[in-house]
């Protein structure tokens, strides 16, 4: 499929290793995992997303059980969504301030552009900390712009419309997938042979 990249899932093989009298497996670690994102050595999963374990129930049958924890769990909070929104509004505020500086203060624009190129505004909190150490007035301007943009978005955001858009897109995607998987009879095939 074009545009789809398969990534290996993290696998816990520590339970499969046989150790002598409770000794730790070689390497000193009791858990051997690979990153969920291929080639990304910076991200370490807190727990494996999928693990293979020798379950006591399945030992009697002589097999392994596969436990998969890929499903998201939202108890009562959506803290990750709130964080993403804050980071996105920081990004939008940086773009807005860059545009304003480009029009009104080219020297500050050049400095801020270079700062943004080195310090990506993907993590709003870290970005604003670094900016406030360098130029406090620009950091305050980004913070005020971020708050203003959020207030503007809250007034314009129609939650019912957003829900409907998500629902419609889900339906469209499921319909497209169904149409891809259905095997349609061809005109050449004569299914009604008589005699």
Automatic annotation (TrEMBL):
Secretion signal span:
none
InterPro entries assigned: Chaperonin_RbcX_sf, Chaperonin_RcbX
Task: Please provide, alphabetically and separated by semicolons, the GO molecular function terms listed in this UniProt record.
Answer: protein folding chaperone
Q: What are its GO cellular component terms?
A: chloroplast stroma
One Pfam match, by short name? RbcX
Instruction: Give UniProt keywords alphabetically.
Output: Carbon dioxide fixation, Chaperone, Photosynthesis
Biological process, per Gene Ontology: carbon fixation; photosynthesis; ribulose bisphosphate carboxylase complex assembly
Could you name the domain of life of the organism this protein comes from?
Eukaryota
Looking at the keywords, is Metal-binding present?
Answer: no
Database matches in PANTHER family: CHAPERONIN-LIKE RBCX PROTEIN 1, CHLOROPLASTIC, RUBISCO CHAPERONE RBCX
| Protein name, UniProt field | Chaperonin-like RbcX protein
Organism lineage string: Eukaryota, Viridiplantae, Streptophyta, Embryophyta, Tracheophyta
């Amino acid at each position: 499929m074009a545009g789809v990249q398969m990534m290996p899932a993290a696998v816990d093989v520590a339970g499969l290793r046989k150790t002598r009298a409770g000794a730790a497996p070689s390497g000193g670690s009791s858990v051997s995992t690979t990153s969920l994102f291929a080639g990304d050595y910076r991200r370490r999963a807190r727990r494996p997303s999928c693990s293979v374990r020798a379950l006591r129930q399945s030992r009697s049958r002589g097999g392994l059980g596969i436990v998969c924890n890929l499903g998201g769990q939202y108890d009562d909070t959506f803290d990750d969504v709130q964080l993403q929104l804050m980071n996105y509004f920081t990004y939008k505020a940086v773009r807005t301030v860059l545009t304003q500086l480009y029009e009104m203060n080219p020297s500050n624009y050049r400095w801020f552009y270079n700062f943004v190129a080195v310090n990506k505004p993907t993590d709003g909190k870290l970005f604003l900390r670094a900016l406030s150490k360098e130029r406090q007035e620009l950091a305050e301007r980004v913070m005020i712009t971020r708050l203003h943009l959020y207030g503007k978005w809250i007034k314009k955001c129609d939650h019912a419309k957003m829900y409907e858009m998500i629902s419609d897109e889900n339906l469209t995607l499921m319909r497209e997938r169904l149409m891809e998987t259905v095997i349609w009879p061809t005109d050449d095939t004569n299914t009604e042979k008589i005699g």
